[in-house]
Specification:
This protein is an alpha/beta fold. The chain has helices spanning 12-29, 51-62, 83-90, 115-121, 136-140, 165-170, 174-187, 189-192, 199-211, 243-256, 280-283, 285-288, 314-323, 328-337, 339-343, 345-353, 371-376, 384-391, 422-442, 447-464, and strands spanning 3-6, 36-40, 68-71, 107-113, 130-135, 145-151, 154-155, 159-160, 217-226, 232-240, 258-261, 265-271, 294-304, 361-366, 380-381, 399-403, 406-411, 418-421.
C-alpha cells in the first residue's frame, strides 16, 4: 500500500491532497513522465460512493493542456451513461473525454483461469474455465498510468466491491462476466457477502497476477460510513497497487458497513434512488444486502421510483421476463435447457441472486413497471404512490420505525452496506474458511492467506460472544 487514511472524516480538501500525493507517488514509483492517463471510475449506480468527485479531482490534476486523460466508467454490462448522467457523476469533465466500455465487441482475450482451479475453489460446484477478456484500452491503449477508483462495500459476487472488480467485471468481456457470475452464484450469495476473499475474488487475483502485470496501474479505494445523524461520510481512503490496499479497505468496511442483528427482521423497507437504479438488475441490491437479515416468512418492500425495466440489456431483460426470480432449481433447469440463457449465464446467476428461495416475500413498488410485469417475474406488487403515501420515506430514519402501529426497519441506501442476522454471518465466515485453507495449502509462502484465516477466526469468536 502506498498510503491511506481511515477512522476519521476525510473531507474534500483532504481527498484533494491525497489525490495530489497519488500523482506524485505514481511519478516516483511507475513513470516520471506521465502523459497519457486512463481513469476507471464506477458507473452511475455507485454515484453515492463519491468516486465521481475523486475522478474529477484527478482529471484536473493531470489536465495541463497537453496530457491526454480518458475516462471509462466501469459499466460491465450496465447501460451506458447519458451526457446528463456523466455531468451529474463527473462534473465538468468534457463529454468527449468520457468513453463507453463495450463488453461485447471491444475486449482482448488474455487467457483463462483453468477449470481445475475453479472446481477446487468452489468445492466442485462449478467446473468450467473462466476466460479473461478485458477492454482493449487496458492492455493496448498505450497509457502511462491507469487509475482504478471505487468504493469498497459488501458485494454479492465478490464479497466486497472494487479493486480488480473494475477490470474483471467493470471492464470485462462477455465470456468473463458470464462465467464468473454463474460461478459465484453457485457458491451461494449468502456465502459471498462481506467475505474478504471469495473463490471468485481469488480467481480475479490470479488473473491480475498472470495477465495484467505490465499494466502501470494504481487503486483508489473508498470506504463510506454513516455518522450519528445518518449522514454518509468518507472515513477510509486507500491508495496502492497491491492486494494489501484492498484487504485493508475491506477489513475496515467489514467492521463499519456490516449491520448485525441478534434476531432476524420481520419487515424491511428499502428505498432505491431513481437516478441510480432504473432496472431490477441493479435495484435488486435491496434484496442482496438485506436477505441475511430478514426472518423466514418476513417481508421486504422495495420502493424504486426509477425502475421501468428488468435487465440492463434487452436480451437479458427478455430472459428475466421469461423465467422470473423463482428459485435456484427453476433457474438451473432453464439454464440447462435454454441455450440462450446458457449463453448469457450472468442472467441465470442474477435470477438466482434475486430469489428468496421461498424463504421470505418481496414486494416491489416501481415507478415505471406495471402490476402485471412485476407479478410476472415472481414478486408482489404495490403501487408506487400508495407506497410513498404509506411509508413517507423522506420522514423515516434509517433503522427501526413505527408506521401505523407496525414496527419496520428502513434502509435509505441498501447498496452501501450489508444487514445480517448474526448467526448467518458467522456461518458464512466458517464456510469461507474452507477456501482460505485451500489457498494456504496451494500458496504456503503467501502470508496474506494466513492473515485472512486469523482475521476470520477472530471475527467468528467476536461475533459469537
Amino acid at each position: 500500500m502506498w498510503f491511506y487514511s481511515e477512522g476519521y472524516v476525510i473531507d474534500e480538501a483532504e481527498q484533494q491532497k491525497m489525490m495530489v500525493r497519488l500523482v506524485e507517488e505514481a511519478k516516483k514509483r511507475i513513470n516520471p513522465d506521465i502523459k497519457k492517463v486512463l481513469l476507471l471510475p464506477p458507473d452511475i449506480t455507485r454515484y453515492h460512493s463519491g468516486s465521481g468527485k475523486l475522478t474529477n479531482m484527478l482529471y484536473h490534476i493531470f489536465d495541463d493542456g497537453e496530457n491526454v486523460i480518458d475516462v471509462i466508467p466501469t459499466l460491465g454490462q450496465h447501460q451506458p451513461h447519458t451526457p446528463e448522467e456523466n455531468k451529474w457523476m463527473f462534473g465538468d469533465i468534457p463529454e468527449e473525454r468520457i468513453h463507453v466500455h463495450d463488453w461485447r465487441n471491444n475486449c482482448a482475450h488474455l487467457g483463462e483461469i483453468d477449470s481445475e482451479f475453479v472446481k477446487l475453489a468452489t468445492g466442485g460446484k462449478a467446473d468450467w474455465a473462466i476466460p479473461i477478456e478485458i477492454d482493449d484500452a487496458i492492455v493496448n491503449g498505450g497509457y502511462d498510468l491507469v487509475i482504478n477508483i471505487g468504493q469498497v462495500v459488501p458485494h454479492e459476487v465478490l464479497g466486497f466491491a472494487n479493486h480488480n472488480k473494475n477490470y474483471f467485471i467493470g471492464m470485462a468481456g462477455k465470456g468473463t462476466i458470464t462465467a464468473s457470475h454463474m460461478m459465484a452464484a453457485l457458491c451461494g450469495i449468502e456465502n459471498n457477502l462481506a467475505q474478504l476473499i471469495t473463490p471468485l475474488r481469488g480467481c480475479y487475483n490470479m488473473a491480475e497476477e498472470s495477465f495484467l502485470g505490465d499494466v502501470p496501474d494504481v487503486y483508489v479505494l473508498v470506504v463510506k460510513t454513516r455518522n450519528e445523524d445518518g449522514e454518509l461520510q468518507t472515513t477510509g481512503l486507500y491508495v496502492g497497487d497491491e492486494v494489501d490496499s484492498y484487504i485493508a479497505a475491506a477489513r475496515y468496511a467489514r467492521k463499519n458497513t456490516v449491520h448485525m442483528f441478534e434476531k432476524p427482521l420481520k419487515k424491511v423497507i428499502c428505498f432505491m434512488d431513481g437516478k441510480e437504479f432504473k432496472s431490477t438488475w441493479v435495484s435488486n441490491k435491496a434484496i442482496y444486502r438485506t436477505r441475511k437479515a430478514i426472518a423466514d416468512g418476513g417481508e421486504l418492500i422495495i420502493i424504486a421510483p426509477g425502475v421501468s425495466r428488468f435487465g440492463e440489456q434487452d436480451d437479458v431483460d427478455l430472459l428475466i421476463r421469461k423465467y422470473g426470480y423463482k428459485g435456484t432449481p427453476h433457474t438451473l433447469e432453464a439454464f440447462n435447457s435454454d441455450p440462450v440463457l446458457h449463453d448469457l449465464a450472468h442472467a441465470a446467476a442474477h435470477l438466482i441472486h434475486g430469489s428468496t428461495e421461498g424463504r421470505f416475500n418481496i414486494t416491489y413498488a416501481p415507478g415505471g413497471a406495471t402490476k402485471e410485469e412485476i407479478e410476472g417475474i415472481g414478486y408482489n406488487y404495490m403501487d408506487y404512490n400508495e407506497a410513498m403515501e404509506k411509508y413517507h420515506v423522506n420522514e423515516l430514519k434509517d433503522g427501526f420505525n413505527t408506521v401505523n402501529g407496525e414496527e419496520i426497519y428502513f434502509i435509505s441506501s441498501p447498496s452501501l452496506g450489508l444487514w445480517t442476522a448474526k448467526d448467518k454471518y458467522i456461518d458464512a465466515i466458517k464456510n469461507n474458511n474452507s477456501f482460505v485453507d485451500l489457498m494456504i495449502e496451494r500458496q504456503p509462502d503467501k502470508q496474506i492467506w494466513k492473515d485472512i484465516r486469523k482475521w476470520n477466526d477472530a471475527d467468528i469468536e467476536n461475533y459469537s460472544k
